[in-house]
Amino acid sequence: DFGRSSELAFVVEPSDDIAVQEQPLILYCQVEGIQPITITWRKNGVMILDSENAFMLANGSLYVSRFQRVRGDGSSDEGEYDCMAQNHYGLVVSRKAKIQAATMSDFHIHPQNAVVEEGGVARFQCQIHGLPEPVILWHKNSMPVNTDNERYTLLPKGVLQITGLRAEDSGIFHCVATNIANVKFSREARLTVSGSHSTVYKDPMILVGPENLTLTVHQTAVLECIATGNPRPIVSWSRLDGRPIGVEGIQVLGTGNLMISDLTVQHSGIYVCAANKPGTRVRRTAQGSLVVQAPAEFVQHPQSISRPVGTTAIFTCVAQGEPPPQITWLRNGQILETSDHIKLKNNNSTLSIYGINQADEAIYQCLAENSAGSTQASARLTVLWADGLPSPPQGVRAETVSATTIQVSWEKPLQNTKEIIGYVLHIRKAADPVEMEYQEAVSKSTFQQLVTDLEPSTSYSFYIKAYTSRGASKASEVTVVSTLGEVPAMPSLFIKVINSTTVQATWEPSIKLGQHKGFKLYYRKVHLSQYTGPVLLASNVTAYNITHLDASVVYEVKLLAYNQHGDGNSTVRFVSLRETVERTVLNPPCDCMKDEQNNKTSTTGIIIGIHIGVTCIIFCILFLMFGYRGRLLMCKNVQEQLSTPQIPRSQRSTTGLVLNGATRRDRDDRDLNGKQLDMNELERLFPASPSQEQQEKGITSAHSPSVPHDETQISTLPLDEFSIIEEQPDPLPKNPRGSSPAAPAPNHGPANEG
Prior knowledge:
It is found in: Membrane. Residues 8-100, 105-192, 204-287, 295-382 form the Ig-like domain. The chain crosses the membrane at residues 606-626. The chain is mostly beta strands. The chain folds into five domains: 9-101, Immunoglobulins (Immunoglobulin-like, Sandwich); 104-285, Immunoglobulins (Immunoglobulin-like), CATH 2.60.40.10; 301-384, Sandwich (Immunoglobulin-like); 387-482, Sandwich (Immunoglobulin-like); 494-577, Immunoglobulin-like (Sandwich), CATH 2.60.40.10. It contains six helices and 56 strands. The strands form 15 sheets. Strands 2, 5, 6, 9, 10 and 11 form a six-stranded mixed sheet that branches. Strands 13, 16, 17, 20, 21 and 22 form a six-stranded mixed sheet that branches. Strands 24, 27, 30, 31 and 34 form a five-stranded mixed sheet that branches. Helix 3 packs across helix 4 (649-673). The longest helix is centred in the last third of the chain and has 41 residues, at 603-643.
């Protein structure tokens, strides 16, 4: 980068001014940079030539000898002036200075006579327009009003307020307006103070509330609010958005006027004046808006840069203000026009110049302007160019190979080819902006490149640069060519059997298909050569039912996508309806459509069924737990019936009671001690008998492989003779001797026969 001394920049720029009629005017302009520097002036964009009335001083400032708002030829010295400076690096333009003539109109509001009772409030107003803003002073009885009196308040907009009126306040009032253009006096108005102070109650009332104001930062805002009432109301201020007004720069004038000094943008808002009756919630309000504007100023200035030929130069210019400023770019003092290689982004905050060449070397300016003012900043682009660089590659050609491939070829440059270390191919979709460009490097001995992975039916632009260790050549000529169109890819196909004569073909749309106009569907019996179809289907269709089929044969279904370039490859599926027919014969016919509809509404039934099943499982577990003892008794009774002689029914209950008791105690012992049933105890309770031995032999023979199965002797016990006896867990008595195999246990509980 070059130092600041080599650049062209403004030290002093012309500023806005108000000129006095027939008085001289000087507009200042001071520039620094490498000489020679030429300075010229423009008014409203037109060059100003030296004349007797306006000419340039030696320091570059413009001198207007006698400023005139309107000249004899109808022209005016009012307008927007700017200063232009130029050297061999480029040209810069200063900010625009708005020059206006000092004026003062007649009063359009004069003070009016007023009669106010003692202790009340009097207000006089006069209003006049002028440039600069006139200063308004008040006179009473031809003498300046004593501003030291706290009851007298003078507001900048020509308002006089008198509170707590007394008899000595009566008199004749008028205002005097003064600026550099003139001095004017208003009409007179008489104030009469009548009667004595009244004690009658009066609701608070706002005589005059704040008006809407639009000002610039650092100015002073006065929001008026004057209220009356008996007792005297208390005036307070707040913001409508609830934010605090603050204390810095805030002052109350008189009994309720709000003055804000050194305005900032944060002071903008709606201000509410409230008149409150003391000690109550009775109040009256009025509101007015304050808009504070800020001239444009730069947050980030563009910086001068140096870049080699063929690279990209980027300037950034960020400005702020209220309202937000508009940004305009100049190139050597002229409005910059965008093109394929010059782009503006981010609301014109960023200037990008792609593939720069020597013609892009210039001074670039950023102008930021809003209704409150304008500013400018400049930066220079230096294009680095080394002698002896190759000339641009020649004969660039591009040929389409396929829908996704293009071959680019070229010839070596005509000059300075010895130092070439390679080539760079620049590729971009013709419809894309320059910043979407990408590159591919190629060796110095290669003069063609196959560019792949392109999009079908798309135009692409190509150009070549030759590179050396000292820099790149200028770009070759740009060539544009389009890829071929491409047929769609194979769609995915699924076949679903609906019934014995109908199948449904479904497929899914996919971006992999590419651009397609629709689908073609074919089907045929496999033993035939001719297809039925094509059935043309729109691109948004994803299913088709094939009906009136023969259930005894196998069908081939084929689907393909097509577009303007032709038909894509097809997807083939085979389907047989024979299994559907067989299922229909073996099973009752069903209403498939109804079943399908029922399936859609069976979720609730499934949930209920799950609940019922879980409930059944729980009951089964409980039943097994409580019924396990009963099943064990059943098995024991069957065993005893098989191994003991039959006894009368009258004795069977007693026997069952003892057996049940023994069995229960033995089971409890087994559960507690983990031991098997003591067979000796059973023999002691039930002595062996011949019939028992025979039955045991019979049962054993049933398990012997030497005895035929049909000879096995198995005793059965009728259900009506089976009983389950439940008793309290009393200890078993000793077995008495006698013909009965067991004696009843004393003090047993009632038996439940089952």
